[in-house]
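Record type: monomer structure entry
Structure origin: computed from sequence
Chain ID: A
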Amino acid sequence: MPAEFSPRKHRGAMLGLLTVMWSAGSAAAYLAGDWMLGFGAEGRRWLLACPAVPAAILVLLRFGTPESPRWLLSKGRRAEAATVPLVLLGLLPGLPPLASGLLFAV
């Protein structure tokens, strides 16, 4: 989705940052897992239970995420596809911006 919602000027930097963050997250997960295995016999259970917290948070956050304009276009829902960027930027009257400034922060 970053490629669809980011401005063309910042798209390369945002996708590059996304790749770096994936790598940093993998390294942090490895270090955290190595640390948790030092807990003894219960370390294995902690290691398996820890991903449940971010997974639950992401599932809850997904409910507020609009459908991708490209996906909507592929399903023939042109009017909805045209309104998604307007809603995100707060350009529709009466609706608060969902991403106020986050799109252009990079």
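Annotation 1: The two ends are 15 Å apart (CA to CA).
Annotation 2: Residues 2-56 form one domain.
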